[in-house]
């Protein structure tokens, strides 16, 4: 046996261990679930190695997970005959938290009730949960490709910042984790307790979980299977209860919440496959992490596990879907690269996308309260599909929900179908306004004429909305129209006439404004849309917005300058004051510039030089 080598845990691992040992879980039994889950993953990898092995070295490999209880030693051993680990694997997996999101996880705990937190499994660090109940953990492992049993690895730690590694002897490949229980955790030495935990968390694992039994009368040790070990997706849906579906989801995803909904189909014919797909109730913590895009799908071929995080079978805007795909039409040695180009993959992706969208449609129509939960969690992700999936764009558009001027609520619950159903008789377009936030949208000066004529406007205030509207141009033959852009049909609908006398009175002021603002604006007109605000900026219908312009500039692309038209409300007191100042030959430059910047702020939500704007306002405030 090699001399022990001492190592220090990575700093983040130390922090996590400290949280573990000080009761991160209110439910300590979860350590068994996590170790069983790790063993199951190791066996899945071993199954795949057996399939790809041409030497028949692992031909008769009988897969199982085993649990041994030793009341005299105060220990539990959970072992598997899976893939095992090399020395480097042990250091990487047991000494370092490789998951890039762990820092975020640890930071998030500061704002939560630590005792109620049960998220460890979702961060890939479930092994460390064993230190909740253990004062020492030993891991003995032998990698499947290691021919010499004397080159197995023994890892030991008391969870106090250090661990040791040395070589040892292990007869077969796989891993065994020995938990040396604390004196006050002896409840886990009872067989009935272990049985209860396995039934609760791991009953549907498709690998046999066995517990060692001792026959006192005959003095014989034996092994008894304690889980059903069924691949639930291979069972007809009529034979599976809702409770079984929910428990399998929680095992599969390590989610403490039940799923929102699911579909289970077996398809036969040219393409034979089974899918069991779930919509979660809560969004995953890292779903917006663009650097670590992961899909929640597991791929099986002919009931054999192939790989996790398969993103080839669903579009990115459905990345929140979790579940299993089991197909008979792919080779067992399929790689991610081949999978991407496979004809079978493309056919399945199209079919599965349709199935998921159909399920979401069904929820939106038949289970409106459940759809509110879905939209709150996944609505902004679904919006990506408007640009990403043009073939299904109309279906996705029908699933969108909006706030609107008439709803007078930040809750997004108005569908486009309902908007069209309630349109004004003269109205031919779907009107919307985009702003930095809901309050800005709700109080936008662009809404004034719509309020007067009781025509509803969609209020868009999420960061993705403007990008989405560049692709969503019409719905059910109704075109979309931004209300802060010039609309040729606008005046025809509202029939707002501007008094000729007023036109004459402000003619000179319009010329002055154009001269004062010079290149800042393209035109200046009298507005028929304003009733409460003094001015508003509108742009040409084909003009790129400021937000989109920023995105292009960030990508190093030049954008054409925006052609603004400044519209003034001649009935407003400020405009009348400026006209009076002009008649008295007073300087109106400062007032005009402030009004322009005010309208620019309403138009784009920001100013390039807000301090200058504030200074100009202060100058006016101190004027006599």
Description:
The protein has 624 residues and is α+β, with helices and mostly antiparallel strands. The protein folds into four domains: 5-225, Heat Shock Protein 90, CATH 3.30.565; 232-373, Ribosomal Protein S5, domain 2; 401-495, 3-Layer(aba) Sandwich (Rossmann fold); 497-624, Four Helix Bundle (Hemerythrin (Met), subunit A) (Up-down Bundle), CATH 1.20.120.790. It is 36% helix and 19% strand. Strands 1-6-5-4-7-3-2-8-9 form a nine-stranded mixed beta sheet, with helices on one face. Strands 10-11-14-12-13 form a five-stranded mixed beta sheet, sandwiched between helices. Strands 15-17-16-19-18 form a five-stranded mixed beta sheet. Helix 8 runs parallel beside helix 11 (393-399). The model is unreliable at 110-124 (pLDDT under 50).
The major β-sheet equals:
9 strands, mixed
Number of DSSP E strands: 22
In the predicted model, the low-confidence regions spanning at least 5 consecutive residues are 110-124
Q: Helical content, roughly?
A: 25-40%
Find the CATH superfamily of the largest domain.
Histidine kinase-like ATPase, C-terminal domain
- Rg, alpha carbons: 33 Å
Task: Indicate the CATH architecture of the largest domain.
Answer: 2-Layer Sandwich
How many alpha or pi helices? 21
Q: Strand percentage, roughly?
A: 15-25%
As for the CATH topology of the largest domain, it is Heat Shock Protein 90
The top-level CATH class of the largest domain is Alpha Beta
Mean pLDDT across residues: 85
Structural shape: elongated
Structural class: alpha+beta
Q: What is the rounded distance between the termini?
A: 93 Å
């Amino acid at each position: 046996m090699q001399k022990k080598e001492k190592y220090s845990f990575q700093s983040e691992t130390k922090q996590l261990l400290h949280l573990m040992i000080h009761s991160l879980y209110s439910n300590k039994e979860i350590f068994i679930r996590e170790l069983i889950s790790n063993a199951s993953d190791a066996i899945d990898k071993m199954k795949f190695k057996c399939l790809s092995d041409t030497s028949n070295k692992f031909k008769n490999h009988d897969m199982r997970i085993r649990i041994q209880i030793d009341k005299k030693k105060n220990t539990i051993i959970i072992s598997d005959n899976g893939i095992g680990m090399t020395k480097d694997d042990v250091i990487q997996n047991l000494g370092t938290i490789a998951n890039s999101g762990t820092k975020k996880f640890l930071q998030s705990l500061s704002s939560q009730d630590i005792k109620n937190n049960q998220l460890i499994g979702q961060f890939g660090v479930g092994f460390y949960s064993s230190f909740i109940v253990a004062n020492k953990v030993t891991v003995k492992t032998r990698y499947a490709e290691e021919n010499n049993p004397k080159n197995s690895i023994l890892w030991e730690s008391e969870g106090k910042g250090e661990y040791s590694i040395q070589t040892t002897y292990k007869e077969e490949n796989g891993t065994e984790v020995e938990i040396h229980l604390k004196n006050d955790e002896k409840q886990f030495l009872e067989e009935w307790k272990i049985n209860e935990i396995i039934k609760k968390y791991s009953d549907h694992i498709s690998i046999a979980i066995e517990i060692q039994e001792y026959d006192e009368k005959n003095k014989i040790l034996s092994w008894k299977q304690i889980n059903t070990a069924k691949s639930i997706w291979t069972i007809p849906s009529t034979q599976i209860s809702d409770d079984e579906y929910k428990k399998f989801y929680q095992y599969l995803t390590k989610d403490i919440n039940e799923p929102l909904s699911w579909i289970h189909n077996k398809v036969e014919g040219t393409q034979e496959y089974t899918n069991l797909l779930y919509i979660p109730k809560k969004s995953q913590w890292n779903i917006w992490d663009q650097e670590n895009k992961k899909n929640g799908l597991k791929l099986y071929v002919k009931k054999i596990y192939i790989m996790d995080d398969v993103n080839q079978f669903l579009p990115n805007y459905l990345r929140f879907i979790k579940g299993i795909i089991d197909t008979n039409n792919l080779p067992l040695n399929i790689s991610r690269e081949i999978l991407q180009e496979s004809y079978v993959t493309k056919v399945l992706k199209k079919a599965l996308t349709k199935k998921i969208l159909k399920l979401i449609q069904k929820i939106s129509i038949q289970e409106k309260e459940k759809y509110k939960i879905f939209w709150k969690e996944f609505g902004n992700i679904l919006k990506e599909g408007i640009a990403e999936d043009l073939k299904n764009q109309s279906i996705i558009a029908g699933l969108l929900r909006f706030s609107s001027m008439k709803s007078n609520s930040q809750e997004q619950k108005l569908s486009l179908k309902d908007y069209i159903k309630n349109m004004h008789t003269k109205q031919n377009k779907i009107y919307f306004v985009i702003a930095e936030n809901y309050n800005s949208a709700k109080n936008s000066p662009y809404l004034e004429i719509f309020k007067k004529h009781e025509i509803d406007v969609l209020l868009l205030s999420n960061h993705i909305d403007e990008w989405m509207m560049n692709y969503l141009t019409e719905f059910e033959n109704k075109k979309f129209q931004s209300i802060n852009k010039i609309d040729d049909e606008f005046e025809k609908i509202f029939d707002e006439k501007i008094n000729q006398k007023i036109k004459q009175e402000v003619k000179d002021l319009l010329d002055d404004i154009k001269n004062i603002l010079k290149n800042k604006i393209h035109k200046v007109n009298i507005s028929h849309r304003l009733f409460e605000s003094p001015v508003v900026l509108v742009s040409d219908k084909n003009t790129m917005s400021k937000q989109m312009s920023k995105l292009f500039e960030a990508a190093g692309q030049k954008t054409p300058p925006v052609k603004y038209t400044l519209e003034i409300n001649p009935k407003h007191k400020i405009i009348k004051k400026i006209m009076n100042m002009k008649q008295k030959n007073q300087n109106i430059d400062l007032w005009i510039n402030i009004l322009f910047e005010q309208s620019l702020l309403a138009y784009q939500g920001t100013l390039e030089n807000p301090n200058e704007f504030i200074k100009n306002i202060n100058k006016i405030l101190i004027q006599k």
